[in-house]
Amino acid sequence: MQDQETVILQGHIIDSLILAKVLDTILMLGGTFDLQDVQIGKTREEPSRARIVVRASSAKLLGDILHAIQPHGATVENERDCRLTEAPADGIFPDEFYATTHLSTQVRVNAQWLEVEGIEMDLGIRVDQARLTARTVPMGEVKRGDLIVTGREGVRVIPLQRPRDRDVFSFMESQVSAERPHGHIIGDIAKRLVQLRAGFREGKVGSKVLLAGGPAIVHAGGREALAWLIDEEFIHVLFCGNALPAHDMEVDLYGTSLGYGHVAGRVVPHGHEHHLRTINRIRAIGSIEAAVKSGVVKTGIMAACVRRGVQVVMAGTIRDDGPLPGVITDSVEAQAAMRAAIPDIGLALLVASTLHAVATGNLLPATIPSVCVDINPAVPTKLADRGSFQAVGLVMDAASFLRELARELDWKP
Amino acid sequence: MSRLLVCPPDYFGIEYEINPWMRRSNAVDSDRAVRQWHQLMLVLEQDVGVVLERMQPIPGLPDLVFTANAGVVMGCKAVPSRFRYVERQKEEAYFEAWFRAQGYDVLTLEKGLVFEGAGDLLGFSDGWFGGYRQRSDIRAFSILSEWFTKEILPLELVDSRFYHLDTCFCPLSGGELLYYPAAFDRYGRAAITERIAPERRLAVPEDEALKFACNAVCVGKQIVLPAGCPHTEQLLASRGYRLHPVPLDEFMKSGGSAKCLTLALN
To answer: Do residues A213 and A351 touch, judged by C-beta distance below 8 A?
Structure first.
């Protein structure tokens, strides 16, 4: 957590170089600052005023900095507690509720700044006054009488810090272009996967890799590469719909995906029925897990997930066939299940699914690096527009991406 | 005609130690102090030609003699000091009462916001400088600046021997500045350099700064300063000032000299 405090400096602070001295002092002691607002006096007699946000890596350092700059007139801005209003009914926020961003946020309660847990965009903030905790809450989950933060007073949003690693994520640019070479980006992603796998194996928090993907992964030929990545423990959480597992298992059972011969690449007679027969078969068995464990489904993405104990959240849509057992058909429930899987994620790969990429992007705090891969530039652009510095967009085919990534990690197809 | 507030040294002495100059063991020779003070008054009245307003000395307030710290006066407004040390806080009421009795419009700073009067606020007609960190709180200057509609550039005092601005900084009537640069940090020196042209900056050497050469009273072309500062005298004489050195070493035992013993009233 970055500690910060807003200070006001006023008077004849420009020509006396008091402002310069205060800013130098902050830097010299190892802090950083944001000059949020500087009003310069229009005449020599008129005072100037600067609002400075001082940041430091620890509360102690922040205290030291404030102690050093206060004699030069820097006064901690009068801060107020955030306003708390009771929710009027279940599922309804009070008017003027504070809507979160995907950036780390703190709220002031009883003169104390609390870190808001479970940060995610477009939610409210619920405060537990007895335990002095604050947590995001989706509109649908709020209960009557919950204390919800309203207005903007006593709320502060912490801007993203430049990431320390010197790789593609550290450029803090969200450009998406089909014209840029992909090689070095995929190389950097591979390096991250290796680091995260090491962390995951040591049980380090925040080391899980999430993949949210669509069926194009299977159709385009990325199934084997993804299954290998899962088997090698590079992927730990899978978000998908009904189609990705259906076509993945269709390949295993019928050798087709959506009726196309997976190897031959030709339409197979009556192939269009294969995915329905697959879904029906799994429904008869009762679960994907049982289908894999009983040996009915032997290869592919879902088989690898079951073997490796990957957490899978399948969220259904209105165009689903079946659906497969385990697909969550209530979208609010599905959202909650996805949300529950987010806290331990260290990297998100959003591959070939507009729906799941956007839904997942909305759930991710800005601090989590994400890669969005789609042949349609609109999807990575939409994700990048959320303002995550650490979002990398790749305009490319899902299978090419996964195969190249796996090869980078020594996959031998 | 210039008017200065002064207070006879009837009860002057070293009864506590609140600056590096004060040593209780270094006792004041009272008779000598009285003689030196009277000589200073004589020079001010006869040679410089100012009008002196005398305050009633109070037993138990040895530093009441340093009227520069009574507060600051501009026109009909007066702001009494708020002393940093409890030893001098007892003087506040007397100075404030004096300003009120004289009919000044008295403006008071909030309690706890320390500001030691003309000792820390000096300037030229177009802009003032405020000394802070040792005795006055920098925050006082933004309030005073508003009350007096004057620019006040704060200068940090970094050497505890020069604990008030008037111990190391003396604006002169001709626009020159007599000062001791090492009493300020590089920001303060840069601010001074930016404001005052090189030919107007008169730097005092360390040995004379330590004799409080900068603690001088300048009225028109007349300057009263502590005796024993030949280099400073020469510097000032070359700018056309008439000098009146006065021995004030009894008051130096307390960390004060000519300027500290007076308060300009207009």
So the answer is: yes
